[in-house]
Design goal:
alpha+beta, Aldehyde Oxidoreductase, domain 3, single chain, 3 helices
Length: about 150
C-alpha cells in the first residue's frame, strides 16, 4: 500500500489505521519508521516532487520482495511542502517474525533514500531551493537524475 498526501503526514492517524487494518492478519511484528524534517541550515521546511509511475514501480518490487518473505510493506509520503518538525515519510513492515521485519525495514528505508524518484527542495524565505548536496542520483535515471 503506497499512499501519497499533499503536505505533512498525520503520523498518529496513519500508524493507527495501518495497525487496525493489519491486526487481523496475525502478524507478530509491526515496525514503523517515521521521517521528520529537521531544523538545519536555516530551512523553514522541505518541499517534495514525486514522479509517481517510477515510484509505484519501485514500491511494487518491494511489495513482492516482502511478500516472498511472508511480510507486507506499506508507505506514506508527502508531496509539496512540509515544515520543520513535521513528518514527510512513514514506512512500516508487518511480518509474522520480528527478524524478517527488522531486516526488511532497514533495507527498505536505505533503498528508498537511494532509489525513490522523489526530489527534495529546501524552503528558505518561502522559496523552494533545490537541495542538490543532499540528493542522490537515481540509478539508471539519465535525465531524471540529480540536476548538475
Amino acid at each position: 500500500m503506497l499512499e501519497l498526501y499533499n503536505g505533512a503526514l498525520d503520523v498518529p492517524a496513519i500508524l493507527k489505521r495501518w495497525y487496525e487494518e493489519e491486526s487481523p492478519n496475525n502478524y507478530g511484528a509491526y515496525i514503523p519508521f517515521v521521517g521528520t524534517v529537521r531544523a538545519e541550515d536555516g530551512i523553514e521546511g522541505l518541499s517534495f516532487d514525486i514522479y509517481e509511475p517510477i515510484l509505484q514501480s519501485w514500491f511494487s518490487a518491494w511489495e513482492q520482495k516482502a511478500n516472498n518473505k511472508g511480510a507486507k510493506v506499506v508507505m506514506a509520503h508527502s508531496i509539496g511542502d512540509v515544515m520543520v518538525h513535521e513528518s514527510s515519510y512513514i514506512a512500516a513492515v508487518f511480518s509474522p517474525k520480528r527478524r524478517v521485519a527488522l531486516e526488511l525495514i532497514d533495507e527498505y528505508v536505505e533503498d528508498f533514500k537511494a532509489s525513490a524518484p522523489i526530489w527534495k527542495y529546501d524552503i528558505i524565505d518561502g522559496l523552494r531551493v533545490y537541495a542538490k548536496e543532499r540528493s542522490t542520483q537515481i540509478k539508471g535515471s539519465g535525465l531524471l537524475g540529480v540536476i548538475q
